[in-house]
């Protein structure tokens, strides 16, 4: 028997606090507040931008594509494709169309671009790319024309909708085009493929891959107005970062309203954010996210690394990787959601950050302002020539840049590709200190360096992995030259 002497108040009941499940709440602002004093006091960083890449650059791989010197046989007919999507999805279509036309010994009509409900850009091929350069670069490999001859179109009442359209499955093998498309091409002398993005398998014979490589890395050059504007901004970034030998960091930030809405992640904007995101989802995808039975788990999405990094998270990550306040950053992005609030912490961490709108005057940007693909092409150019490129959300833009940078920089992408699953756990940890966080970020940085040079595997894209289809190993190239000289 137990005896208790004294009094107890039953009005006081202990409260047990349960911490929300990992990833279910966006806690990065609280982590920033905790780490900021020690982060700002940290003087241990070396100049990260000058020491970041430890793996050999410019020594392992080099471009070795050659145009054909032989004449082309008589054409089997005309291939007309309609490219859908944004700038780099259209780029996929263009390069794949070159490969298919070459494989079928057909004449390619300059691809037509769809006016998409999200991008809403009426730009034509010649507005974005140098059409004459494209045609002349490929003239010995693929015939390319601007229009289909009148005598052929007469049979279709001059209406492309009367031309047979192939609805080709995504990632179809090249053999399908020979078996199913070529007979119709020979019969009709013109065929249409719409839509065309991603309608050709990544894995293809060397002859097909070579044409893709030629199109992407040599023939596709931005139109003179776009290229001139892009190169002007590159020069201004290098001028501003003269103290770092003209080297700057570029960041592709995907935190526009449509990206945040599509991700179904929840951040710290409260009721206003929910209202905005619900409206954006209904406007862009009409009922896709409200289908009966569909369950959306934002916490699981975050833990799976699928939430777009916020400007604050990008800043924390880069500061942890050793980039200090004196680093010049070029931010490639569309219109950031709730920009005034969301950009404030990133600008606190990197006050020298620049965007194309900050580097150029309104008058300079006016010709491109209402054309999302041309604006993206300017961003692409500035990112291409940065010392460090940071990708935060995937998509066609960083995938093409990964490959293009490998092509230009000896096979090394010089790109930071963060582990977003790991970041989700770190940003959610209230107990982590600055030194531990910094150690994790430096490890992540080193991992990106070690993965900078990667060879294409069978189902990889040559647009991200140009080695070995579009580039030669230096030693092998030298051996080959030595053998041919003997």
TrEMBL record:
<dbReference type="Pfam" id="PF10250">
    <property type="entry name" value="O-FucT"/>
</dbReference>
<protein>
    <recommendedName>
        <fullName>O-fucosyltransferase family protein</fullName>
    </recommendedName>
</protein>
<dbReference type="GO" id="GO:0016757">
    <property type="term" value="F:glycosyltransferase activity"/>
</dbReference>
<dbReference type="InterPro" id="IPR019378">
    <property type="entry name" value="GDP-Fuc_O-FucTrfase"/>
</dbReference>
<keyword id="KW-0119">Carbohydrate metabolism</keyword>
<dbReference type="InterPro" id="IPR024709">
    <property type="entry name" value="FucosylTrfase_pln"/>
</dbReference>
<dbReference type="GO" id="GO:0006004">
    <property type="term" value="P:fucose metabolic process"/>
</dbReference>
<keyword id="KW-0294">Fucose metabolism</keyword>
<keyword id="KW-0808">Transferase</keyword>
<keyword id="KW-0328">Glycosyltransferase</keyword>
<comment type="similarity">
    <text>Belongs to the glycosyltransferase GT106 family.</text>
</comment>
């Amino acid at each position: 028997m137990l005896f208790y002497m004294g009094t107890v108040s039953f009005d006081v009941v202990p409260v047990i606090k349960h911490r929300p499940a990992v990833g279910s709440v966006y806690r990065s602002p609280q982590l920033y507040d905790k780490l900021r004093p020690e982060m700002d006091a940290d003087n241990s960083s070396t100049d990260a931008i000058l020491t970041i890449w430890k793996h050999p650059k410019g020594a392992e791989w080099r471009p070795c594509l050659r145009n054909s010197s032989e004449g082309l046989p008589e054409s089997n007919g005309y291939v007309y494709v309609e490219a859908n999507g944004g700038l780099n999805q259209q780029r996929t279509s263009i390069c794949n169309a070159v490969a298919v036309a070459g494989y079928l010994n057909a004449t390619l009509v300059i691809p037509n671009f769809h006016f998409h409900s999200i991008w809403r850009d009426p730009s034509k091929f010649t507005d974005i790319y140098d059409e004459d350069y494209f045609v002349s670069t490929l003239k010995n490999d693929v015939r390319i024309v601007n229009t289909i001859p009148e005598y052929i179109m007469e049979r279709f009442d001059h209406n492309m909708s009367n031309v047979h359209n192939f609805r080709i499955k995504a990632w179809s093998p090249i053999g399908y085009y020979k078996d199913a498309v070529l007979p119709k091409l020979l019969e009709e002398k013109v065929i249409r493929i719409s839509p065309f993005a991603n309608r050709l398998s990544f894995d293809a014979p060397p002859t097909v891959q070579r044409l893709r490589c030629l199109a992407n890395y040599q023939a596709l050059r931005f139109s003179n107005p776009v290229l001139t504007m892009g190169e002007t901004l590159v020069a201004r970034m290098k001028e501003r970062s003269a103290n770092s030998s003209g080297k700057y960091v570029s960041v592709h930030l995907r935190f526009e309203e449509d990206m945040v809405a599509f991700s179904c992640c929840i951040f710290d904007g409260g009721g206003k954010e929910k209202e905005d995101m619900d409206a954006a989802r209904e406007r862009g995808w009409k009922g896709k996210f409200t289908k009966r039975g569909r369950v959306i788990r934002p916490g699981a999405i975050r833990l799976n690394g699928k939430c777009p990094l916020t400007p604050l998270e990008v800043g924390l990550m880069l500061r942890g990787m050793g980039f200090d306040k004196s680093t010049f950053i070029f931010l490639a992005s569309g219109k950031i959601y709730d920009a005034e609030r969301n950009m404030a912490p990133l600008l606190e961490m990197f006050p020298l950050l620049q965007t194309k709108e900050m580097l150029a005057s309104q008058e300079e940007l006016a010709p491109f302002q209402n054309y999302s693909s041309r604006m993206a092409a300017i961003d692409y150019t500035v990112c291409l020539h940065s010392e460090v490129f940071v990708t935060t959300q995937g998509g066609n833009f960083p995938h093409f840049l990964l490959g293009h940078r490998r092509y230009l920089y000896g096979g090394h992408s010089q790109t930071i590709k963060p582990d977003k699953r790991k970041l989700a756990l770190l940003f959610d940890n209230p107990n982590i200190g600055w030194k531990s966080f910094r150690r994790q970020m430096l490890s992540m940085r080193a991992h990106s360096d070690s993965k900078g040079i990667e060879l294409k595997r069978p189902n990889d894209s040559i647009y991200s992995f140009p080695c070995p289809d579009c580039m030669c190993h230096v030693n092998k190239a030298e051996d080959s030259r030595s053998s041919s000289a003997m």
